[in-house]
Structure formats: C-alpha cells, structure tokens
Amino acid sequence: MSCHDVEHAEFWFLTDVWYCDQKGWDTWVVTCKDFDGNCVGESEYYHYKSDALHCARGYLYSDRCMHMQVERKNGTHQYVESV
C-alpha cells in the first residue's frame, strides 16, 4: 500500500515517524498530527524505516504538513525536517 492511499486531511502540522515495539508489531509507523498533537487520519505501518521516511517526506515536500519528526528505534528524538 502506498502512503498516499490512506485518507488524511488536506493539511496537518506534523508527520511523526516512530518505531512500535509492542509485542507482535515491531514496525515503523507514520502518524500525522495536528498542532495540539491529536492524530489526523489513520497511521501507516512499514517494515523498513526507509519506507516510512519516504512516505513522511512525500507528505512534507507536497506541502501537506509543516514538519516531520523522526525518532530512533529506542524512542529517542533523532531529528526534525521543516519546509
């Protein structure tokens, strides 16, 4: 499934890339959030971090969000990209 197949709002504040290590998941997640941190639409799940980053950057560079925040696998902050 392409990251653009999931329904989202026209615009949101932040696209968050994070790792879910909950038993049975072990996957990278792309979650779109509004200014208050509330989820917008459904999160998207990827086996590889590179695929999640590709999706998140697609949103960022298509002007659908203002920022992309990326976490490491252990949950610590890695970096932020902005347009």
Strand arrangement in the largest pleated sheet? 3-2-1-4-5
How many beta-strand runs?
5
Judged by helices, strands and strand pairing, the structural class is: alpha+beta
Tally the structural domains. 1
Beta-strand level of the residues, as a percent range?
A: 35-45%
The ordered H/E elements are: EEEHEE
* Biggest pleated sheet: 5 strands, mixed
Structural description of this entry:
- About 15% of the residues lie in helices and about 40% in strands.
- The chain is built from 1 helix and 5 strands.
- The chain is an alpha+beta fold.
Give a concise summary.
The chain is of the alpha+beta class and 83 residues long. 16% of the residues lie in helices and 39% in strands.
Main attributes?
83 residues
Write the layout of secondary structure elements.
Blueprint: E1 12-20, E2 27-33, E3 44-46, H1 49-61, E4 65-71, E5 77-82
Parallel strand pairs: 1-4
Antiparallel strand pairs: 1-2, 2-3, 4-5
